Amino acid sequence: MSTVDRAKEAYERHAPNLLDLLASHRLSKDSLDLLLIAFKDQDQLQVYAKRNKDSRYQILKTFDILNRSGVLGPKKEEGDKQVPEGKYYINRFNPNSKYHLSLGLNFPNAYDMAQGYTGSDIFIHGGIETVGCLPMGDTAIEELYTLASFAKSAGQIQIPVYIFPFPLSDENLSIYAAQYSLETVSRWKELQRIFQKLMESIRND
């Protein structure tokens, strides 16, 4: 099967159900904005959506992350098998992935580069193998790829992807702080401010 056919078949297989899912949330693929949030300790990737004219997102679907490499904490160098932590966005659609389909992230971002962090080719992808990516399984990546295609076609230039070690409440931060270095905890406190601001953009109903 050609790579174009792989992406096309994923679209044809999942678009009808995903359109129904969007409609149940009073959303349309023609005005769709997406937001992805991953929590490493929970092995979850949450997909939020809104109309592109609206300001607040609503939860659309939660996917399981099927495997994880490394430990909680940032990715610092090529080959450390760490999953990055921070704010990223989808910067490429890869229908030619050896992991079925994949969505690339812009790691290292400006913050990472300022810290001297190195690495490349961080993806949300199919399959279950990983050395620092987010493996979702083939069915889930087909759905995610299709949803991201909807949003891209609707004009969303950058689909944000936030990767957090865990939900950054004060309580959780206190629990994990005793187990990790001061450097890591300091970064988590920075991410907590981002997390709190992000939560303000999400509807609770």
Automatic annotation (TrEMBL):
One of its GO terms (biological process) is cell wall organization. Residues 34-164 form the L,D-TPase catalytic domain. The keyword Cell wall biogenesis/degradation applies. The active site is at H125 (proton donor/acceptor), C133 (nucleophile). Keywords: Cell shape, Cell wall biogenesis/degradation, Peptidoglycan synthesis, Transferase. This is L,D-transpeptidase family protein. Belongs to the YkuD family. PANTHER family: L,D-TRANSPEPTIDASE YAFK-RELATED, LD-TRANSPEPTIDASE.
